């Protein structure tokens, strides 16, 4: 059996193909590999920290090749001296870190931000999301305060730390600004500008520089979207009624009478017939009809005043209004067909 270790020892200290999610990583625990190293290579976007007896003794931040045998590197002279004196290898630590920019990390508010819509006064649940980019600027301080000698520290871990801190000022700003749901999108730049300034100091305190902070979008919770949908439907319906010359009160009266007329469980046949006659009269008045045959005659007990005949209306306009009322559900198919026939009979 050979008394010699046949493993080929590396003579170069180098961080080869680091994972994109790696922020800090210890190079090796093999004392022989450290002792026999002749060169240190710090690649583009990398840095290297040397730890001895629990203290950070040096930090390489400039990329390049360092000749450990000839270069005047005081900290490496220390390494060689105690390694050759057979001191414990566990006193030495060589850590590489990512100095390159860390791009497009996701952020988002953890829960909806609640406030009242300034225009419609209903409760709003708002969320925001986007991405940010940053780089490490104080690796030694961060290593001492956060990494603390751990063999591996990922980008994901610092991302969690940052997210736990940056969402609070953004949430406070959105709650106080109380943007209306119809105006939130046009304020994205203002939100991003405030957020970038508000969270920059958080990055600085941890030893990082914020490069870019973006708002990609906002969203409302399900309850808010339901309220928004109802308002949008009512607004569209009101606009259509306006084009027909029907105000909202008339629409509600017509709808209420229709519901009562269809309700077979309420009242008797006479009541339903009377309600249908009133609805027909109201419909005729809405259409501005000049025809002599109404849908029904008023009851003797409630005589109706003789209306002033309106100016004759073009039959095409009548048909267009009739079709819009049918599309809005103000009249049923039978009423639509009957009234359409009445208009066509006047041609």
UniProtKB/TrEMBL annotation:
Residues 26-232 form the SPFH domain. Residues 318-344 form the SHOCT domain. Residues 288-315 are annotated as: Disordered. Pfam families: Band_7_1, SHOCT. It comes from the Bacteria. This is Membrane protein.
């Amino acid at each position: 059996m050979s008394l010699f270790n046949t493993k080929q020892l590396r003579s170069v200290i180098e961080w080869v193909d680091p994972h994109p999610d790696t922020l800090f990583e210890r190079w090796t625990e093999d004392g022989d590999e450290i002792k026999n190293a002749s060169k240190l290579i710090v690649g583009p976007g990398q840095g290297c920290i040397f730890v001895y007896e629990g203290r950070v003794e040096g930090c390489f931040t400039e990329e390049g090749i360092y000749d450990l045998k000839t270069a005047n590197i005081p900290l490496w002279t220390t390494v060689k001296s105690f390694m050759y004196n057979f001191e414990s290898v566990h006193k030495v630590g060589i850590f590489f870190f990512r100095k390159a920019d860390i791009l497009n990390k996701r952020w988002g508010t953890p829960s909806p931000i609640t406030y009242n819509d300034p225009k419609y006064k209903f409760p709003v649940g708002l969320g925001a999301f986007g991405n940010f980019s940053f780089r490490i600027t104080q690796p030694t301080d961060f290593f001492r305060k956060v990494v603390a000698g751990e063999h591996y520290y990922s980008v994901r871990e610092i991302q969690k730390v940052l997210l736990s801190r940056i969402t609070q000022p953004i949430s406070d700003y959105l709650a106080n600004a109380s943007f209306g749901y119809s105006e939130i999108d046009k304020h994205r730049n203002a939100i991003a500008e405030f957020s970038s300034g508000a969270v920059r100091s958080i990055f600085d305190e941890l030893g990082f520089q914020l490069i870019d902070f973006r708002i990609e979008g906002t969203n409302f919770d399900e309850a808010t979207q339901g309220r928004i949908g109802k308002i949008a439907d009512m607004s569209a319906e009101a606009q259509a009624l306006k084009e027909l010359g029907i105000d909202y009160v008339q629409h509600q009266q017509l709808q209420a009478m229709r519901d009562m007329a269809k309700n077979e469980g309420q009242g008797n046949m006479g009541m339903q017939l009377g309600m249908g006659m009133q609805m027909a009269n109201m419909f005729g008045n809405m259409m501005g009809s000049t025809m002599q045959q109404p849908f029904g005659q008023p009851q003797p007990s409630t005589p109706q005043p003789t209306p002033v005949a309106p100016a004759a209306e073009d039959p095409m306009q009548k048909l267009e209004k009739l079709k819009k009322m049918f599309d809005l559900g103000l009249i049923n198919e039978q009423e639509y067909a009957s009234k359409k026939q009445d208009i066509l009979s006047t041609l």
